[in-house]
Design brief:
Elements lengths: L1 H32 L11 H27 L3 H6 L4 H17 L7 H23 L1 H9 L1 H34 L45 E5 L2 H4 L9 H12 L4 E4 L7 H10 L8 E7 H4 L5 E6 L2 E6 L4 H6 L5 H20 L28 H7 L12 H23 L4 E6 L2 H4 L1 H11 L10 H12 L3 E4 L1 H7 L15 H27 L1
Parallel strand pairs: 1-2, 1-3, 3-6, 6-7
Antiparallel strand pairs: 4-5
Helix pairs in contact: 1-2, 2-5, 4-5, 5-6, 9-20, 10-15, 14-17
């Protein structure tokens, strides 16, 4: 029996060593065969080389332990006689699971530290077992270790039972409105949620807009605006958002004019298309504005929609099956605990007489300066974050960029087809990212990426989109030139944030108005004919 137990542990050690060896070889192969790409973050070859080396070193440690157990008369074989295989698996499974979930290819910066933690545990355990097995044996016999084992069993059982229970109860939680009003709103927004310190709330449909009616109340212009957090107005109060300013200016010219804001945080072009068909067309618009933020509509953070307890949210995916199904943010328990915490915080604030800003509230500084002299500079963390979309700025197309460009065109063509079938004109509004319009940030961007300026064409996305629109005779309002002309004299973006401040929204409103007026007059002329 003891020999059989030793063989089982030896084979288990061999399997761990083999997995680590394959991982190290995979990382080295990736480094040799891959060109730098920013789709998954600004990956660092030096860091991957260290991780690959650590994988190979740890593989050697486990392989040596396996050899000692299987083929040598050593103290390890004696230790194996007292080891419990279920207990060993109990500790090994969560470590290996963490290893698989946070595998560093595809590369994401926020996965690396967690992967290294799992790798470090495997390495430390193998080294301890190899160098001083007797002290490891004493530790395993200690009372503290027994407590840890019992605690781990309890934690694992709690997590499994809680997750299964919440998945079974999820339909009831969605109907009960435990975490929100539980309305199935068109864009997944929460109705009547306070969005900033001015007291502005989302409307009954969960959009950051005033209440709207499906039926028209006047013959004035009626427009529907689709977009993401820029359209929503992150970084500004509702009264400062560029679409709010556009609506007010048009209403001064044509009382009753409407710009219905259907912007939703985190939306992408395919989401714009779906929302237009499911809800936007019901308003009978004279014109549709598709607000395309170049910063992440081309190259978004990879994710999918999940619905937990009646609430829609985006979860991160990267193509790794273990990550995309078993990572913590995909657990119902994770989201229900987060919702409960937010709900409790909000109720405590209300009891204390404080403002409840809600889950998705923006709280811009009430007196944020647009003076460029007051800006202290971009943080390395911010620059690394925006470098995650760098593929779209590289002159040479990567395979990832080509695939995403095809997806983007498909979504825009769906919008074009739907609106053409109903004879509704639409305008593509191109919202520039800060790195596209500020030469100083461009230099920092290139320097921190380790590249050279000649590799980049920061206006490449606008050129592609404008050419696509020109082929279809579509109007384009490109804000890049007006922002580039003003960036030296005033701050247009929230400091170390991708969104516009009040000054940026005001400039955007003026530029959009200048581009909209001729389009509206042409549309009015076509209707009169």
């Amino acid at each position: 029996m003891s020999d059989r137990r030793s063989r089982i542990f030896g084979l288990l050690f061999s399997a761990v060593a083999g997995g680590l060896l394959v991982t190290g070889i995979d990382l080295l192969t990736f480094l040799l065969s891959s060109t730098r790409t920013g789709m998954s973050g600004t990956w660092e070859p030096e860091k991957l080389r260290w991780i690959a080396g650590l994988c190979l070193l740890t593989s050697g440690l486990w392989a040596t332990n396996a050899w000692n157990v299987l083929f040598r008369r050593s103290r390890l074989q004696i230790l194996m006689q007292d080891w419990s295989l279920p207990t060993a698996l109990l500790w090994l499974i969560p470590v290996v699971l963490g290893f698989l979930v946070y595998y560093p290819i595809p590369y994401f910066n926020h996965h690396i530290d967690k992967f290294v933690l799992a790798l470090g545990v495997l390495s430390a355990w193998a080294a301890w077992l190899l160098v001083h097995p007797s002290s490891l044996a004493r530790m395993l016999e200690a009372r503290v270790y027994g407590w840890l084992r019992i605690a781990l069993i309890n934690v694992v059982m709690f997590l499994l039972v809680a997750e299964v229970s919440l998945r079974m109860a999820d339909p009831l939680l969605a109907q009960s409105g435990l975490f929100s009003s539980a309305h199935d709103t068109p864009g997944g927004g929460i109705p009547h949620q306070v969005t900033d310190r001015s007291g502005m709330k989302t409307n009954a449909l969960g959009f950051r807009d005033r209440e709207r009616t499906i039926e028209r109340t006047s013959s004035a212009w009626r427009m529907v605006a689709l977009g993401d957090s820029f359209t929503w107005g992150a970084g500004a109060r509702y009264d400062e958002v560029y679409l709010t300013l556009v609506e007010r200016a048009l209403a001064d010219e044509r009382p009753g004019a409407e710009v219905i804001n259907l912007g939703i945080v985190g939306y992408q072009p395919e989401d714009y298309s779906a929302l237009l068909k499911e809800h936007g067309l019901s308003y009978g618009p004279d014109l549709v504005l598709v607000n395309f933020f170049v910063g992440n509509d081309f190259m978004p953070a990879q994710g999918v929609q999940m619905i937990v307890a009646g609430l829609r949210h985006r979860v991160h995916v990267n193509g790794n099956w273990f990550h995309d199904h078993l990572s913590w943010d995909h657990w119902y328990l994770s989201h229900d605990l987060a919702y409960a915490r937010v709900l409790a915080d909000a109720r405590i604030k209300r009891m204390q007489g404080k403002s409840d800003l809600g889950m998705f509230a923006s709280d811009p500084a009430p007196a944020a300066s647009d003076d460029p002299q007051a800006f202290s500079g971009w943080s390395p963390r911010y620059v690394r974050m925006i470098q995650g979309m760098r593929d779209q700025y590289l002159k040479a197309d990567s395979s990832v960029f080509r695939a995403r460009w095809n997806d983007t065109k498909a979504a825009l063509e769906q919008i074009d087809g739907v609106l053409n079938a109903r004879r509704v004109p639409w305008v593509l509004v191109l919202l520039p990212a800060e790195e596209q319009v500020d030469p100083r940030l461009q230099r920092l961007y290139v320097d921190m990426s380790g590249g050279v300026a000649d590799e980049y064409d920061f206006m490449k996305p606008q050129r592609l989109l404008s050419a696509w629109a020109a082929e279809r005779g579509l109007a384009v309002i490109d804000l890049s030139a007006s922002f580039a002309a003003s960036v030296e004299t005033r701050r247009l973006y929230v400091d170390n944030d991708i969104h516009w401040n009040a000054a940026g929204n005001a400039l955007a409103a003026g530029t959009v108005l200048n581009g909209l007026r001729p389009v509206l007059h042409r549309a009015a002329g076509a209707v009169s004919e």
